[in-house]
Amino acid sequence: MDQAEHADATDRDPQALPEELARRETLKAKLDEACARLEADAKAQAETARPAYEKKKAAYDAKTGRRGRAPKPPDDEPPPDRQISLTDPDSRLMRRSDAHEFRQAYNAQAVVCAEGSQLIVTTDVVATSADAPSFADTVLSMEDTIGLPKTVLADTGYASGQAVRKLREKGIDPLVAIGRPCARRPYDFRPRPAEREPRRITEPWRLAMKDRLETTEAGDLYRRRKQTVEPVFGIIKSIMGFRKFSLRGLAKVTTEWTLVALAYNCKRMARLQAA
């Protein structure tokens, strides 16, 4: 009777699960949701890669003799080592380079005017460390706002034949750096494995882009890239103090990055007016 009266006097629902079991049920639900998301992402990636596989398979079947290894169909099951964050499932593990650590992060993109104003004209946020897949879509997003540019300057991380073709179809002239052999820096004393031979450039569009960038006109124009976009990110990080996102989820992070770009543009426009 004493136990019954004590239970009636408390606000806790007597039919509720114990706190420990409730936490386990919540965790299990999150894990099930994460597994379902990984499976959905794997299927989406497989569907995206299927046209390229079918093209390679048709070319392989058409060859006489069929030498070499047959193309492997895309797997719609996530690999065992695939990971996902329970806190922010939209983010991904990525790092800036082989010399940096892995972080759960997003990849913030910005297109900056190279004609002197250094204003950010459009932004984007992607959940992949690679820049090339979102290159064309980020630039073409300006079509319905301020209009498309005549020329786009991008570093070697944006080198993509598909993106270059997509931009040219819209009348945009992309100048994209082609990777050069990585020379060891004289002040880098970290132990490194034996130097590998640089990858040969065989794609026609890469060879044509490389030859064009070696001309005086294209080379002078491309050199504006480093002095245009790099200071913008430096100001946002060092002067404005924005180094990490405070929100979670791709949609909210995209909004946050847009607000940061607007704040930078207001600051830049004030300096331009003062000058």
Automatic annotation (TrEMBL):
Tree of life domain: Bacteria
Protein name, entry field: Transposase IS4-like domain-containing protein
Sequence ranges of Basic and acidic residues compositional bias: 52-64
GO BP terms, alphabetized: DNA transposition
Species assigned in the record: Novacetimonas maltaceti
GO function terms (MF aspect): DNA binding; transposase activity
Short name of any one Pfam family annotated for the protein: DDE_Tnp_1
Region feature Disordered, mapped onto this chain: 1-25, 41-92
Domain Transposase IS4-like, residue spans: 96-266
Coiled coil region boundaries: none
